[in-house]
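ok here's the first one, seq then struct tokens
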Amino acid sequence: MKARDVMTCHAISVSPDLPVKAVANTLVKNGISAVPVIGRDGTLRGIVSEGDLIRRVETNTLHRRSWWLEMMMSGRSFAEEFVKTHGLKAMDVMTPDVVTAVPEASLREIADKMERHGVKRIPIVEHGQVVGVVSRANLVQAIASGISDVPAQDADETLRQSIVKKLDEKPWGHGMVNVIVKDGKVDLWGFVDNESEQNAVRVAAERIAGGAVVNDNLRVCHVSFNS
């Protein structure tokens, strides 16, 4: 199996200028641990993870070091840390060096990169553009859907692409929805904003599947910040 077979195609992303509070809200609302930062030209600029936000002035979690350790730090290190902990935009807190993979990368390659670099999700990049994201959850979903290392059947891939295309055309189809097809059986995974969107995604998949089994594993996420 390849990254393209399990990746979430409509990956949530943020712009470099998005306020840090809004970035945090995006992580919480969508139940994800990291989000890619995409520039106006569509290229990947960086990624903001929960780890990038644990040391912040708002939560009073800044480092407290001994005087001798601070003496060993350079002015540049202090400046970079200040931007990371006090910056107001995604570009200030993001990690610019992102571990990526291509759509044709095997799931073994993806798992190896996650383990080697200690990351939970990997943006999938093709021709400089982010086309999806593979997370640890996607790998677990593949197991739950009965995916094996046997190459996907052409019919399964065709059905998956048809469902993904249909969801892409709908205003309610741009959530964190992942589609996995195995032996003609469709599994829907991920998050939607409400029950109406959940039903709409399911119905769209059922119409395209033409009577094939469609398992609705979607979760409704109501969490939001109002202040």
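and now the second one, same deal
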Amino acid sequence: MNPLNYESFSLFPSIVQALEIEHFDNRELVKAAYELKDRDEGVRKSNKGGWHSKTFQVSQRDTPINQILIDMIGSFPNMKKDWKRDLYLHAWVNINSPGSFNVIHLHPGCQLSGVFWVKYPPNSGDISFRNPQEFVYHRLLTRGYEDEFKEQTKNKSYYRIRPQEGTMLMFPSSLEHGVDENKSTEDRISISFNIKIM
């Protein structure tokens, strides 16, 4: 039998967007992250080890951290021109020391979440996303599809992304994600955020 007119396409995908700054210089943001850590004892959330700042609202460009978030979020293509007008943005800083990681979690109560990598030493932990349909399609994903097809369609149980300094990811808040153990000898620094579209 010769099958005719084969095609495959995705329906209702979880859209993950990435935006990168060319020639990113992280010195000012690294300094701002450590200054914030000196003033903030931090909280425990999904982090195992490391430091997670208290959450803060971002509404104006009054700090280097707030400025980079507002500028980057406002630069994403494929968003309506006025979408920023009606949103509530809050953020936190993560300083993940060697040996620390973030367990798999999601961010209820908002529509979009994201992360901006300020400092990413080699081997300091990839971010991974769990397929929201993995429970239902476990056998299909593990024993049905060819590996090449799963890679091509990004339809696996987990999908890993290697961070890059100066890059921001934005994704649906309902998408479960975690960060692997920092196996480097340096801190990994990121700024995470949640967006509520009002």
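notes on #2: The mean pLDDT is 94. The chain has four helices and twelve strands.
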